[in-house]
Amino acid sequence: MLEFDGLVKTYGDNRVLQGVGFTVAPGQMFGFCGSNGAGKTTTMRIAMGLARADAGEVRWRGTALDDASRQRIGYMPEERGLYPKMKVADQLTYFARLHGAGSADADRAVQEWTERLGLADKRGERVEKLSLGNQQRVQLAAALVSGPEVLILDEPFSGLDPVGVDSLADALLERCRAGVPVVFSSHQLDLVERLCDAVGILARGRIVASGTVPELRRREGGRQLRVVVPDAGPGWADGVPGVRVVSEQRGDTVLELDPATDDQAVLAAALRTGRVTHFARREPSLVELFREAVAA
Amino acid sequence: MSAAGQVRLVARREITTRVRDKGFIISSLVIVLLVVGVMIFQLVAGGRTSTTTIGVVGGNPSVETALQQAGEASGTAVTVTELPDEAAARQAVSDGDVDGAVLDPVGDSPQLLVESSGSVDDIVRSAVGALSVGAQLAAQGVDLQPAPNVSVTELDPSDEDDGPAVVVALVGVVVLYGLLILFGQFVAQGVVEEKSSRVVELLLSTMKPWQLLAGKILGLGVLGLAQMVLIAVVGVTGALALGVVSVPGQLIGTVLVVIGWFLVGYAFYASVFAAAASLVSRQEDLGSVLTPTTLLLVVGFFISIQAGQDPGSGLATVTSFVPGLTPLVMPVRMAAGDVPLWQVLLAVAIMAVAIALVVRVGGRVYAGALLRTGGKTKLREALTAERA
Ligand SMILES: Nc1ncnc2c1ncn2[C@@H]1O[C@H](COP(=O)(O)OP(=O)(O)OP(=O)(O)O)[C@@H](O)[C@H]1O
Ligand SMILES: [Mg+2]
How far apart are CA B147 and CA B78, in angstroms? Predict the structure, then answer.
C-alpha cells in the first residue's frame, strides 16, 4: 500500500494542505484531480522528499518513505527537467543507475523503454534537439527505466499527442497490472475516468471525494434522469414531487430525484405531456462530479 | 544504491561529460602548449649569457681581449669584428651587423657608435678604461702581474640557488590560478545548468543535495588534478630536456608543492563557487555572484607574482595565511625556501578550517537555493529556506 496520511503543509499564510490522506493499492491506478493551485504538486513533492510536510507522512509498505525507498519510485516532476546537452540514451542510463539499477540492467531497460515510447531512433540525440513532446517522452522514460515499485507522475499526459497518450496509457496500465501502484495528476478528466481505478479530488486542502468513479456517482446521492419530451411546455416537471430540475432545454430535461422518489411516477408525469422520446438514468461524467465536489 | 555509490555516479557523469566536450579538450591542449611555450621563452630569453657583436676601427689586438673580458664581467659574450673605417662602421651599425662600433679605442678620444644606448656602452667603457689604465701603468714602467685567483668556499653546499625554484613556483602558480578559475567555472556552470534545466528536481528525488554537490566537486576535481599532473609532467620533462632547470630534485619538489596547494585551493574555491552559483537560475546571472570570489583569486594571483620578486616581504608573509590567498602565495614563499615548517602547517590548518566552514555554509546555501528556480535567491533566503 502507498499511503498518504494526514499531510499538512503551509506556505506563509497559505494553508495548502490541511490533512490530505488517501491510499493507493498495488496494481491500482489513482487519478489525482484538483483545481489549479489545489496542492497536487505539493503533495507529490512531499512524497518525493522535495518539500517537507508540516505534519503527516507518506508510507510505502507500512514504512515512511526515506531516501533509500524513494530510489524505488519513478517520479515525473511537473517542471520537466533533463540535461539539455546529454544524449537520450546516456541520460536515461544515468537516471536508471541513480535509482540503483546495475549497468547491464540499465542498458537493457533503456533499450526497452525507448522502443516502447517511440524513441528508438532518438537514442543518440541530444535532448535539447528533440521536440517538446519527445522530450516529454524521454521524461517519462526517465521515470520508468529503473523498473520502479511505485510511480508518481505529475501531469504526465500534458503535452502529448494522441498517439503519445495511448503509448503512455498502455505503459502505465501494463505497469499497473504488474502490481505497481500508480498515482498521476491530471486535468484531463476524461482520461482519468477512462484509465483510473480510483480517483481523488483535492479541494480546500483536503481530499473532498475519493473512490472509484461509480462509487463517486453513487455517493453523489441523487439519481439523475434524462427525459426528452418534445411536446411539453417549459416547467412541465416542476409539480412532480421529489424531483429537482437540473436543466431543461426545449423538452430535453435533466432531473434529479430524491432517493425516495419512484422513477415510474416521473415517467407517468412525462407521458401526460405527450410523446416521450427518451427516458433513461443519466450517469454524471467525472467532469460534473468534479465541479460538484470542488464547488461544494 | 548507497549514498557513496550515487556520489560516484555523479562524479563519473561530470568526468565523462567534460572529457567528451570539445571545448574542454581544446582548453586543455592550449594550457599544455602555453607551458611548453613559456619554457621555450625562458630558454631563449632567460639564458644567462647574451651575445653582442662589436665592431672595432683601429686599435691593437689587446682591444679584442679587453672587450671580451669586459663583456664576461657583465655576462655577455662579445664577438669582435675589425672594420676598415668610420663610414664602414656607421654602415654596419645602421645595418644591424654589429651592436656597436668603437672608433680609435686606444687613442685620446675614443668614440662609440650605437643605434641607441644600451649594454654595449658599459662594455666598451670599461674595456677602454682598462686599456687606458694598463697603458698608463706600462708607461710608468709598472710590471703588471696577473691578478690572483679567488678561491670559493661553499659554507652550505646544499643551499641551492632558489632563483630557478621560484621561477618554477611562479609558473606553477600561473597554472594553478588558471585551473582554479577554469574548474571553478565548470562547477558553477554545472550547478546553474542543473537549476536552469530543472533537472535538479529529478536528481534530488533520488539523492540529497550534499551528494550532488560532492559528486560534482569530486568529479571535476579529479579532472582538474589530472590536468594539473599532465601539465606538471609535460613541464618537468620539458624543463629537464631543454635544460631550463638543472636541479631535478628541487624542481620536482616545487611542482609537488604546487599540486598540493592546487588541491587545497580547489576544495575551497569549488565549494564557494558552487554555493554562489546555486543562488541564480540563469548562466547570464552567474557573473554577478561569482565576481567577489574571482576577485579574491585575482588578488591572490597578483600578490604571488609580487612575492616572486620579494618572497620575504611582509605582504607575502601575511597573505600566505589568509584563506583563499594561501594556495597562491604560499607555494612561491616555499620555493624561495625561507618558510619555517610551522608556518606551512599553520597555513594548511587555517585553510582546512576555512574549507570545513565553506563546505558547511556553502552546502546549506546550495541545499536551500537549489529548488528555488526562477530569479535570484538572496543568501539569507537560501540559508533559511526549507531544505529537501
Ligand atoms: N515553494 C512554494 N512557496 C510558496 N507557495 C507555494 C510553493 N509551492 C506551492 N505553493 C503554493 O501552494 C499552492 C498549491 O500549489 P501546487 O503547485 O501544489 O498546486 P497544483 O494542485 O499542483 O496546481 P496545478 O494544477 O496548477 O499544477 C499554490 O497556492 C501555490 O502558490
Ligand atoms: Mg501542479
Answer: 22
Pocket test for ligand 1, best of A8, A13, A42, A202 (most atoms within 8 A of CB): A42
C-alpha pair distances (Å), B154 with each of A286, B159, B244, B245: 99, 9, 24, 21
What count of other Cβ atoms lies within 10 Å of the Cβ of residue A235?
9
- Which pLDDT score, from 0 to 100, does residue A222 have? 64
> Which of B167, B69, B82, B86 is CA-nearest to residue B122?
B69
Domain boundaries, chain B: 3-43+162-387, 49-135
The residue extents of the domains of chain A are 2-212, 221-295
Q: Percentage of chain A surpassing pLDDT 70?
A: 99
Distance from Cα A45 to the centre of ligand 2, integer Å: 10
A41 lines ligand 1 (CB under 6 A): yes
- What tens digit of pLDDT does each residue of A243-280 get? 888 888 888 998 888 888 888 989 998 998 889 999 98
Nearest one of B49, B51, B88, B73 to B129, comparing CA atoms? B73
pLDDT number for residue B133:
81
Return the residue whose CA atom lies nearest to atom 26 of ligand 1. Answer: A36
Residue in the structure block whose three cell numbers are 588558471: B178
What secondary structure does DSSP assign to A120-183, as a single string?
A: GGGTTSBGGGS-HHHHHHHHHHHHHTT--SEEEEESTTTT--HHHHHHHHHHHHHHHHTT--EE
Q: Which atom of ligand 1 is nearest to the CA of A155?
A: 27
Pick the CATH number of A221-295 from 3.30.70, 2.60.40, 3.90.1570, 3.10.620: 3.30.70
Pick the residue whose CA is nearest to atom 10 on ligand 1.
Answer: A11
Whether the CB of A134 sits within 6 Å of ligand 1: no
- From the list B3, B197, B388, which residue is nearest A49 (CB)? B388
| CA neighbor of B11 nearest in space, from B190, B134, B150, B176 | B190
pLDDT at residue B159 in the model? 47
- Given the candidates 3.40.50.300, 3.40.50.150, 3.20.190.10, 3.40.50.2000, the CATH classification of the domain at A2-212 is 3.40.50.300
Rounded mean pLDDT of chain A? 91
Intervals of chain B under pLDDT 70: 42-50, 75, 144, 146-150, 152-164, 244-247, 374, 386-388
CA atoms within 13 A on the CB side of B16: 12
pLDDT confidence band for A161 (50 / 70 / 90):
confident
Q: For A191-212, how does the pLDDT look when each residue is reduced to its tens digit (9 = 90+)?
A: 999 999 899 999 999 999 898 8
Q: Please give the pLDDT value at position B158.
A: 46
**CATH for B49-135 (3.40.50.10090, 3.90.550.60, 3.40.50.300, 3.40.190.10):** 3.40.190.10
How much is the pTM? 0.78
User: Distance, CA A202 to ligand 2 centroid (Å)?
Assistant: 12
Q: Which residues pair with A24 in a beta bridge?
A: A2
ipTM of this predicted structure: 0.85
**Which residues are CB-neighbours of A45 under 8 A, at least 6 positions away?**
A51, A77
